User: What shape does this take?
Amino acid sequence: MPCGHLVLRAVHVALLLHELQAKPTTGFANVNVEIVGPQNERQESVVKAFLHAWNAYKASCWGEDQLRPISQTCNQEFGGLGVQIIDALDSLWLLGLHEDYYEAERWVLWNFSSDLDVSVSVFETVIRVLGGLLSAYGLSGQEQLLVHATQLGQRLLRAWREGPVPHELVNLKNGQTSFKEPELGSSLAEVGTIQSEFTLLSALTGDASFHVRGTQVMDLLGPILVEHGGLLPIMLKPQPPMHWTNERVTLGGRGDSFYEYLLKQWLISNRTEEKYKNWYQVSVNGIRRAFVGQSRPSNFTFVREVRTWESISQLVQSDRWLWDPDNLTTEESPGLAFFFQFHDAQIASNLSELGQEASSSSGSADAATGLSGQGSASEPSHGSPAWAYILMPSLSANTACVLMELLLSHRWAEASKMMTIVLPPPYHQLSANSQHRIDAMIGGQLQDLCWSREEFKMDHLSCFFPGVLALGVLTGAAAQPAEELRLAQDLTESCARMWLDSPRGLAPESVLWNRAPQRSRDFRATPKDTHCSLRPEAVESLWYLYLATGDRKYQDWGWAIFQAIEAFARLDSGGYSSIEDVTAETELLHRDEMQTFLLSETFKYLFLLFGDRQPLDLNKTVLNTEGHPLPVLGAWQQRIRGQMADAVSSCKRVGTRGCI
Ligand SMILES: *[C@@H]1O[C@H](CO)[C@@H](O)[C@H](O)[C@H]1NC(C)=O
Ligand SMILES: *[C@@H]1O[C@H](CO)[C@@H](O)[C@H](O)[C@H]1NC(C)=O
Ligand SMILES: *[C@@H]1O[C@H](CO)[C@@H](O)[C@H](O)[C@H]1NC(C)=O
Ligand SMILES: *[C@@H]1O[C@H](CO)[C@@H](O)[C@H](O)[C@H]1NC(C)=O
Ligand SMILES: *[C@@H]1O[C@H](CO)[C@@H](O)[C@H](O)[C@H]1NC(C)=O
Ligand SMILES: *[C@@H]1O[C@H](CO)[C@@H](O)[C@H](O)[C@H]1NC(C)=O
Assistant: This one.
């Protein structure tokens, strides 16, 4: 029922808490209450899992930000706002856990305060706390939630200190702003993922300032986005004149939800703010041209990232394809020299003086190529060490991979034809033992060269993108619906593969997709990125793809992912933990953390995915980037629409500084 607008003006007055024993009601969020709660066995399993996590948090960390499930201790990762409670509110509601919902809501009504002397991330606080409060308000109609949201929003507004772009961190009490990395500034995702929440807050309160701040950021970035073919670098200094500080372009960390919110800002305006739809289409076009490739050998579709913006931005706009993954120039390395110290029993005993000479000249061989490996056989010394060089011509990545495979499979005769081996005279033979050592050493060096080419990193975070593509198709935003749905299906399959084809069925934080014909695996976990935080993006996309296609394979993939989480991340003592290294051959190690998005997103999307009928209608609801359903702006927005537009344009007249 659209009743929220009746009290808009009242929210500036602190409301008395007179409805604590409220019965389940619905606010204006258009949830189909008949479909709330589990409808089948898979959904019941998700509810049980959710409660296993929720009850552990409740028992040990009630009111704190996050549970550390192994030690059953807590952290205040987000400044102590009780983030886990607020992040879980609408999930509790949708999963049919109404008693738990009201218990959590009571905590918010009595104990939540944003008047804290802590520095918080504007972005995290908007998506988790503001989004959580607004979605819960939409579901329950409890007005005090909106009061809290408004007060929090007002404190966050102080992050706009100078110009249209917010600073990254703001102290909720005194308004001081700061940055985690001052030389880098704020990220694209941080400054471009507040607009849906702020616009809704303005619509609900009649106070246009939230909407104005969000819109100013977009009015600055939108034209740059269009000019550069739909892709923007990830880090910027907000101080005017705004400038980029890191030119990496990615749909993964620090870029991701900027692109997501281009579509969602159009959707929350009930598909009326056409500029956002245009910007969304420009971005999708740029991503399709510059980022999409197919892996080898199985032709899975992936999105890559690039290190420099300039390298792509001009080409994306031109008519030719910038990135034709079937015509990669095989960039050549400048050549390689390796020098070895031997303690080869067969030859070393003959080599006392020569060893010295070889040792001193090896330095220049190295310096000449600028690239080298250094080996030292570790056999116990039998006499003085000998030295040898192995020189290779410049190698393409493909050749490096071929040579690597020859060496690692000890096919020395073939491998030695591809390199020049210089041994101090009069010795021309290497013992089998030394050959094996060289195989391992150079093979390992070439592995880096081989793997650093024709491999393309993709964060699990990027897996939000196919879901957004499908949502764009479902809602009429897609410029080329058939092609975009096809791409969404292919990318979603790849994201599912990141889970299903990993040894334990758990996806690493990022993977490297292979393009080289020599390698037999389509992807591997990025070394140093092998942990799994039980992130939601893949199952989020599974849900959108299921809605867009009705294909039950998406439910089955989601079920397999859920089984892996149950098998490896569930702790008997309570809660779920992140996994340290999903590629480990021995027993998996747990990380002492349970991210709040497990409850706001991963389990929610799994629950929604397994439902045959959906409680949320995507014509009336937009899920924010933290999985919080926000109502599409309806009648009340139309009333204050003119007011908000006036505020934005008067700000433009005064100049950006005048608006702060
Ligand atoms: C609020 O916090 C106090 C302790 O500070 C606690 O005793 C009380 O139970 C909390 N209220 C709710 C509703 O959780
Ligand atoms: C992958 O695509 C290439 C060319 O695009 C084709 O030659 C090859 O057969 C495909 N492989 C599979 C497994 O579909
Ligand atoms: C690959 O690129 C080169 C240079 O850009 C071009 O001459 C060649 O025709 C391309 N080959 C294919 C198969 O597209
Ligand atoms: C070492 O020198 C002896 C003779 O001085 C020779 O017979 C032997 O073959 C040499 N060893 C190797 C590995 O060349
Ligand atoms: C949403 O609206 C579109 C038309 O804009 C309609 O085709 C579709 O069925 C609607 N979806 C739902 C769930 O009502
Ligand atoms: C959004 O617009 C459509 C079509 O103009 C209209 O039917 C619908 O009621 C609007 N949604 C809301 C929530 O007002």
Notes: Confidence is low (pLDDT under 50) at residues 1-25, 351-383, 654-660. The first strand starts at residue 66 and ends at 68. Residues 87 and 128 are 6 Å apart (CA to CA). The two ends are 36 Å apart (CA to CA).
